[in-house]
Design goal:
The complex is a heterodimer of chains A (about 55) and B (about 550).
Chain A lengths: L5 H28 L3 H11 L10
Chain B lengths: L6 H24 L4 H22 L17 H29 L12 H33 L8 H22 L12 H23 L8 H20 L2 E3 L7 E3 L3 H36 L6 H15 L14 H28 L4 H6 L1 H23 L2 H7 L3 H30 L8 H33 L12 H42 L11 H10 L1
Antiparallel strand pairs in B: 1-2
Helix pairs in contact in B: 1-2, 2-5, 3-4, 3-5, 3-16, 4-5, 4-8, 4-14, 5-6, 6-7, 7-8, 7-9, 8-9, 8-12, 8-14, 9-10, 10-12, 12-14, 12-15, 14-15, 14-16, 15-16
Classes of the chains: A mainly alpha (about 55), B mainly alpha (about 550).
Chain lengths: ~55, ~550
């Protein structure tokens, strides 16, 4: 198990672990605030207001 | 029930039920003399009972093709009834345990009634019985409507629901017999855990199949929360329950982790059970039923998405805050503490989003107890997530850990948030599913609401006081540097708070009984109505509006 020690895991978590979390956060922010998606989200929020009539054929 | 299944589905259901019964028989024979064998008998009886139910409806005519033009709500109905039934049972046990702490003689000298056995009956009963059934039922309801499609078949929802309840029965009956693997919220032993994996994977596949059939292009945010709940609970359950039984005919097993690794795995599971069972799942419920009941779309859809990913990312890391001042490496504790603090942001996003949705609908909150349940749930969600982040800080934790403050915190979350949002969803769903204009008695919904609020407040305030007094007494030193109070001194100081807690718990339990009666009567009235008298139904609607306006 050389090279795969407690310290190397900690090092990995503190460097790449941090970067991947930051990248994911940026990705989510970009997705959420992407210009033009606002209309789609508004439609989605409204879509649940009249959904009792049954499945769409 | 069975008449809604096609011929093939009935045959398959019969095969599954017979296989379960055979499994029970094998367990009963192999494990005789061990509690494992007793559980075999329970599985056998359960399987045979299901076989009889299927045979009872086996020769009824097949359902017509018309069914495909409507949603499949039978399992939703059954899930709601299971949920409220578990609520009454498990809250009764909870209040018993509360009185037991104030008056320790209430075990009546019976081993099955000792605190250590009754407590997991209460926690499993409310979290998995009451909460789990409500989550499964509402997820079936929400996924069909938001995807504008019917469930893909009629058998797998029943398999999930009935199989899940078999797991709950095995868990709870096991605790009475003394079966436990001693992991908080993961007490059931290996064979029950394996069964839950089968059921849960079927649940995941059912959800994915429904989403794959969807007619609505966008997946509504409530589904994301439900999906995260199903997916992560599967991962948590499997990893935390990795264990080797001492024999395949014995209930006892040992976890494959040991020492601090086992503790870390347990609290990674334990806190993410809070995150993905008690938070994500119920947020899915809130993001659908609160806007529906308020008649207004969610305040900010963007905020609901950001909140979702925030909760999904951050919660995964916070479990180690349960292990401050232990053998766990310091940096892991600090990591848990830091992420707990950041977690407040997405948590409050959800709470604020819910409350802001009500802007412009506050008159409805005043008039409608069902919506008021959901509003109070959002308030308690905001309060208890703030408290949680605060208690995760190492210095605060040194005061709060092992005291009743933790108990206050957990119950602010479960009574105030999980139960209230569930009751709101139940009161929304029951009249709609059983085709009634309103609940049997709107006045009893009010009663339930005020009993719940009063019970939750009395409970939480009693435990806050008790916990902080405990914490302070345990850290008070006298001039010679020894502890000023013995443990017994702190117990005596707790006594009045324990009585107050039991009274608050009783109020909450009484509210659940009122709710159970109201649901029961609504269903009964709906069943007694002949199809021709159903036409009179619309006449009820103006009356309901009038009552709401009063």
């Amino acid at each position: 198990m050389n090279g795969f020690t407690h310290d190397s895991l900690v090092g990995f978590a503190k460097s790449w672990g941090l970067f991947y979390l930051l990248a994911l956060s940026l990705g989510v922010l970009a997705y959420t605030y992407w210009p033009g998606s606002g209309k789609r989200f508004d439609r989605a929020a409204d879509s649940i207001m009249d959904d009792e009539s049954g499945p769409w054929a | 029930m069975i008449s809604q299944l096609t011929k093939n589905e009935r045959q398959l259901a019969l095969v599954i039920a017979v296989l379960v019964a055979i499994c029970g028989l094998v367990m009963a024979v192999a494990g005789r003399g061990d509690p494992f064998g007793d559980h075999g008998v329970i599985v056998l009886v359960f399987g045979v009972a299901v076989v009889f139910v299927i045979i009872g409806g086996y020769y009824t005519p097949e359902p017509s093709k018309d069914r495909l033009a409507s949603y499949y709500d039978d399992p939703v109905k059954a899930g709601i009834v299971f949920s409220i039934t578990w609520a009454v049972f498990a809250m009764f046990i909870g209040d018993w345990v509360a009185w037991l702490l104030a008056y320790p003689d209430l075990t009546f000298d019976a081993t099955w009634a000792s605190f250590g056995r009754l407590r997991p009956v209460h926690t499993t009963g409310v979290i998995f019985g009451f909460g789990g059934n409500a989550l499964i039922a509402t997820s079936f309801h929400v996924m069909q409507r938001t995807a504008r499609t019917r469930l893909p078949d009629q058998l797998s929802p029943w398999f999930v629901l009935v199989g899940y309840n078999l797991f709950c029965i095995l868990a709870v009956s096991g605790y009475f017999m003394g079966i436990t693997q001693s992991k908080e919220y993961a007490e059931p032993e290996w064979y029950a855990d394996i069964w839950l994996v089968v059921v849960w994977v079927a649940y995941l596949i059912l959800y994915l199949r429904t989403l794959a059939r969807r007619r609505e292009p966008h997946i509504y945010v409530a589904n994301w929360y439900y999906m995260a709940f199903i997916l992560v609970v599967a991962a948590l359950h499997i990893v935390n329950n990795l264990a080797l039984p001492i024999s395949f005919a014995s209930a006892k097993s040992f976890p494959i982790f040991s020492g601090v690794q086992d503790a870390m795995t347990q609290w990674w599971y334990g806190h993410n059970a809070v995150a993905f069972f008690l938070t994500a799942g119920f947020l899915g419920m809130m993001y659908y039923y609160l806007p529906k009941r308020a008649g207004r779309p969610i305040f900010s859809y963007r905020m609901s998405i950001l909140g979702f990913w925030g909760i999904t990312f951050f919660y995964m890391w916070v479990g180690s805050h349960h292990l401050h001042y232990t053998a766990l490496p310091q940096w892991v504790q600090t990591l848990g503490m830091t992420f707990s603090a950041i977690l407040l942001v997405p948590s409050w996003m959800a709470a604020a989003n819910a409350l802001l949705t009500l802007n412009g609908a506050w008159h409805k909150v005043r008039d409608d107890a069902t919506l008021r349940f959901m509003m109070v749930a959002a308030v308690f969600y905001g309060l208890s997530t703030f408290e949680g982040s605060f208690m995760a800080m190492r210095p605060v934790n040194s005061l709060s850990h092992y005291t009743d403050w933790t108990v206050a915190h957990v119950h602010a979350g479960t009574l105030g948030w999980n139960s209230m949002i569930t009751f709101g969803a139940i009161y929304y769903l029951v009249p709609q599913l059983w085709k009634r204009a309103q609940m049997y008695s709107p006045a009893l919904v009010e009663w339930h609401f005020w009993l719940s609020v009063a019970g939750a407040l009395v409970y939480v305030f009693a435990m806050w006081n008790s916990g902080i007094v405990q914490g302070l007494m345990w850290r008070t030193y006298n001039e010679s540097g020894t502890l000023a109070y013995s443990f017994i001194d702190s117990l005596v100081a707790m006594h009045p708070y324990y009585i107050a807690r039991a009274v608050g718990g009783f109020l909450f339990f009484a509210g659940a009984v009122v709710g159970f009666y109201n649901v029961w009567m609504t269903i009964r009235v709906a069943r007694e109505l002949k199809p021709e008298t159903m036409e009179e139904e619309p006449a009820l609607a103006p009356k309901a509006a009038l009552q709401a306006a009063e």
